[in-house]
């Protein structure tokens, strides 16, 4: 029974590295366009995620894909998968 267990698909987001000043950590800004419910006007919404970067290989301005993972620290629950 345990052999047939399938891991759930983890969430992946695309964003831009906005800070690489921490060791083994980058801050990734993810942007999206949302529509206001009442006025139907579009506006940009962005959120910043701290992501694990084991080899410190990603720099500010890089477009990356991040994936949800187990908690690595208090604020870090994402890891960088690849560069776009």
TrEMBL record:
One of its GO terms (cellular component) is cytosolic small ribosomal subunit. It comes from the Bacteria. The keyword Ribosomal protein applies. InterPro entries: NA-bd_OB-fold, Ribosomal_uS17, Ribosomal_uS17_bact/chlr, Ribosomal_uS17_CS. GO terms for molecular function: rRNA binding; structural constituent of ribosome. Keywords: Ribonucleoprotein, Ribosomal protein, RNA-binding, rRNA-binding. GO terms for biological process: translation. Transmembrane segments: none annotated. Coiled coil: none annotated. The keyword Ribosomal protein applies. One of the primary rRNA binding proteins, it binds specifically to the 5'-end of 16S ribosomal RNA. NCBIfam families: PRK05610.1 (NF004123), uS17_bact (TIGR03635). Belongs to the universal ribosomal protein uS17 family. PANTHER family: 40S RIBOSOMAL PROTEIN S11 FAMILY MEMBER, SMALL RIBOSOMAL SUBUNIT PROTEIN US17M. Part of the 30S ribosomal subunit. This is Small ribosomal subunit protein uS17. The lineage of its organism: Bacteria, Candidatus Colwelliibacteriota. The gene is rpsQ.
